[in-house]
Structure formats: C-alpha cells, structure tokens
Amino acid sequence: MKTDNSHGLYEQALRxxxxxxxxxxxxxxAVGREPLFITRGRGSRIWDADDNxxxxxxxxxxxxxxxxxxxxxVAAIEEAAEKGTSxxxxxxRETALAREISGALPSMERLRFVNSGTEATMSALRVAxxxxxxxxxxxFEGCYHGHAxxxxxxxxxxxxxxxxxxxxGVPASCAQDTLLAPYNDIHAVERLFGxxxxxxxxxxxxxxxxxxxxxxxxxxxxxxxxxxxxxxxALLIFDEVITGFRVAYGGAQTLYNVIPDLTCLGKIxxxxxxxxxxxxxxxxxEMVAPSGPVYQAGTLSGNPLAxxxxxxxxxxLGQGQVYTILEEKGRHLARGLREAAARTGxxxxxxxxxxxxTPFFASEEVVDYVSARAADTQAxxxxxxxxxxxxxxxxxxxxxxxxxxxxxxQADVDATIAAxxxxxxxxxx
Length: 429
Ligand SMILES: *Cc1c(COP(=O)(O)O)cnc(C)c1O
Hints:
Blueprint: H1 4-14, E1 38-42, E2 45-48, E3 53-56, H2 71-82, H3 92-104, E4 110-114, H4 117-132, E5 136-140, H5 157-162, H6 172-175, E6 178-181, H7 186-196, E7 200-205, H8 221-232, E8 235-239, H9 251-256, E9 262-265, E10 276-280, H10 282-285, H11 304-317, H12 322-344, E11 349-353, E12 356-360, H13 369-373, H14 377-389, E13 392-393, E14 402-403, H15 410-428
Parallel strand pairs: 3-13, 5-6, 5-7, 7-8, 8-9
Antiparallel strand pairs: 1-2, 2-3, 4-10, 9-10, 11-12, 12-14
The structure holds pyridoxal-5'-phosphate.
C-alpha cells in the first residue's frame, strides 16, 4: 500500500501541530503507524492522499450515520450557506432542530445548542452543580465525556480513589471533585453514595459505553443509577453524544426506558458539522442564562450550516426502518467476525449494539475498563493494518468503537468479513 503522499503531508503538518494532528487518536500512534491524510469521502468509502480507497468504519468518529457526503446533507448545507453562514442572532432552524430532538428525547424539555460534545458535558455539569448546590461528580472508568478538566481523571484504581488528574494541567483541586467507579459496578456506586452521597451533584454515564471500545450496560445498571441518584437528590446525566440517534432515534434512554435529568448530545445531531447540545427538565434548564444565573454562551452556537446539516440528517433517520436495518448490518458483521476468529482459535470478543461495534482481542467478555484493558492491543494493531491493506478502515485503536452507516451495503459488510478472515488467518500462521 502506497503512503508516500500521506507521509509528505504528515511531515508538513508536524511543523505546525503537536503530533501533526488536531485530535490525538488521528495520529495512529496506538497502532504504531503514521496517519493517512484523507482527501474525499462518499457513502461508505474514503480515499486518502495516495488514492487508496477503503470502506470506512470510523465515519468521523460517529457523526456520519448516513455515510460521507450524503446528497441531502450537502444540499442542505449549500442552501444554508448561500444565505449567510452565521448571524449571532436566533434563526428558525435552531427551533426546528430542537423540536425534532425534544420530540425524539422527551426528557429534553429545554435544551441549549453548543459547538461540541465537550461543551455539552462541561455545561451540563455546571448546571447540575448550580441546581444541586453540590460540587462532586461521579463518572465511570473508561467513559469519555470530552476534555473538560472535571472529566479527565485517571482511570487507574489506586490513583482513582485519590482523584489524581489524568492529564498534567488539570488542577488537583478540580480532579478531587471527580469520583470514579468501574462501569457496570453498581455496588461501587452505592459505596460512594454511602460515604458522600449528599455531596454528589451528578452521576454522568455513557448509557452504552463506546469510548473504551463498545461496552454494553449490564441489566438493571442504568435503572439502579436512576434510583440511587433520585434517592440522594443528585442528577443523572446521560452522555448520549455517541448513542443519541445512534442506538435508537430516541437514544439509549428510549431503548432502556431510563429517563435522565440531563442529556448531552453531539456528533449525529450536527450531521458532520460541529454541534453539541445539552438539555433536560425544564426547571433545571431554566437555570441557564438568560432565564437563570448559570452562564454559558457561544459565538457560533446554533450555527445555520450546522443546524441545516443536523436537520437533514435527522430527517433521513426518521424514515422507515433505519434502526432495524442498522441492527441487521451490525449483527451480520459481528457474526462474521466471530466466525472468522473462531476458525483460528484466537481469543476474540465482538461487542455490538446496532451500528456500534468493537472487535476485542480478549479472552473474557469485556464489561468494564479493566476487562477492556486486558485486550491484546498489539494483536489489534496487526489486525487494523491488515484490514487497511485490504481496503477496510477500522478505528486506529482497540479502545474506540467502529461505526456502521446506512451507506454501508451488504456487499461492504461481506467484503469486510472476507478481509477479516484473511487477516486473522495470516495472524494465526
Ligand atoms: C465524542 C464524545 C464527547 C466529546 O465530543 P467532542 O465533540 O469531541 O467534544 C463526549 N462524550 C462522548 C460520549 C463522546 O463520544
């Protein structure tokens, strides 16, 4: 596989950006490679600077549930752009997209658009703290909620209890207010509430975890979080930045019928443009300025192009049997990968829900961060590279979800399975 042009572009980028990129996983370091520079995408396919074509399962890390350059989304952006790209004043499209979101996730009685998932979670936490008059937040190891200080807390168990910051630059005073529990471990949550339940403003969780690879919630886990937060007067925040409009039109909360106080969205609702949103119960969200005292603002929030792309995307997702089709594709791919691995006798788990999927090179089922970390990342790196050479672009890390879009055809999925059979066989020999 020729990568000369990507290599040249990477060398130039290294002169300007830390690590040559504008977001760390793009650098391919977890798979020991240099990044490919992408020049175009269409449907399920992307092309890099050396014109290598691949079936793309990164899909911009989630937003592109319709695939690349969907004609309706492109048309909506063009139409909006011709009338002006930003006004810093209210526009009708914001209300239209909010109506669609609030209709799909009725718990979002009031909401606010922001420009990224990070802004959504950061702002939701501020509101939760203001509403409860408490400071602490409980998050789960291996869950990602963007890069705000409060959420960048180390997942290692010893340091975890001390609340040491994960990243230099996060003040210990800030990290101290972040409590950690293992995903799916309700007893750990109960213990934390038992000792300091009246200081916890909120529990934030990915209702289906997708940032340590895909990890499904255990039966009753989300229900138990709902009960314990309610009992202690803490808020439950669902970070549905990935799962919103992904696992179901109404997100994981609709699928599991567990209703959070606040919800964070991003990715899909922007249709490939930068958008986030947070929202929830009216009396909580009325705390946000200008109706209340909690300050949060944004020059480009509710941007016309982004709203147009989001509306066009949700409109397509509202049609017919979209989620049944995505589930079938996901199940088909998961089954194919499992069978391919079983033939080689390699320890292998596929976690899948709808169009979210992770092949783990692990012998035990992955239920939390510790079991995810037990996966063989070197095996994943070899698998990743073998697949890429056969025209299948997987996420360049064991700990990221693969995303299937509506543009992925049965033939794409079959080709992916055939490639996996070859690569796994090669890895076994
Ligand atoms: C991607 C992601 C975020 C952060 O969104 P950005 O737009 O990258 O800031 C937050 N939470 C979850 C669950 C995510 O997957």
